[in-house]
Design goal:
Largest sheet: 4 strands, mixed
Number of domains: 1
Strand order of the largest sheet: 1-2-3-4
Helix content: 25-40%
Distance between the termini: 50 Å
Strand content: 25-35%
Oligomer: single chain
Number of helices: 3
Radius of gyration: 18 Å
Number of strands: 4
């Protein structure tokens, strides 16, 4: 699966006998926080349906810093007009 999805350790989503997606997540009591997903875009709905069936709340969280936050930091550090 590492060759197919580029992830070494991950959860897998299957369609029949074929793995169609891989995702990384953290389990926190009754919550599953999905941090990265690769493969079939419909896999998120499969994971959420699994959560519903097993009374686990599934949420998504990105480990990537949003562009707006990066720009805000840059403006604070260097000013809106940039260094002149």
């Amino acid at each position: 699966m590492a060759d197919k999805f580029g992830m070494g350790v991950a959860y897998l989503v299957f369609r029949g006998p074929e793995a169609v997606a891989a995702f990384r997540a953290r389990r926190r009591k009754w919550r599953l926080v999905v941090t990265e997903i690769v493969g079939d875009p419909k896999a998120v709905s499969v994971v959420k349906a699994f959560g519903d069936a097993n009374e686990i709340r599934v949420t998504e969280e990105s480990s990537q810093i949003p562009d707006a936050e990066v720009m805000e930091w840059y403006e604070k550090m260097y000013g809106k007009g940039g260094a002149k």
